[in-house]
Specification:
CATH superfamily: Superoxide dismutase, copper/zinc binding domain
CATH class: Mainly Beta
InterPro entries: SOD-like_Cu/Zn_dom_sf, SOD_Cu/Zn_/chaperone, SOD_Cu_Zn_dom
GO cellular component, one term: cytoplasm
Low-confidence stretches: none
Subcellular location: Cytoplasm
Number of helices: 0
Distance between the termini: 19 Å
Oligomer: single chain
Number of strands: 0
Protein name: Superoxide dismutase
Helix content: under 10%
Largest sheet: none
Function: Destroys radicals which are normally produced within the cells and which are toxic to biological systems.
Strand content: under 5%
Number of domains: 1
Length: 62
């Protein structure tokens, strides 16, 4: 089911869905993670909307 199979996106500000590089997007729009044939993934990202502390922290969100 594409991105819907991963569950809801983190969207504390009720913004529209978009790509990581779009001006109009919500915090959970981080792009796709691709795996190798064994199901392993590695990589890194940086994002100006993600917060690790405060009321909209992504830590501990389910």
């Amino acid at each position: 089911n594409g991105c819907t199979s991963a569950g809801p996106h983190f969207n504390p500000h009720q913004k529209t869905h978009g790509a990581p590089t779009d001006e109009a997007r919500h915090v959970g729009d981080l792009g796709n993670i691709e795996t190798d044939a064994q199901g392993n993934a590695k990589g890194s990202t940086s994002d100006s909307l993600i917060k690790l502390i405060g009321p909209h922290s992504i830590i501990g969100v389910r």
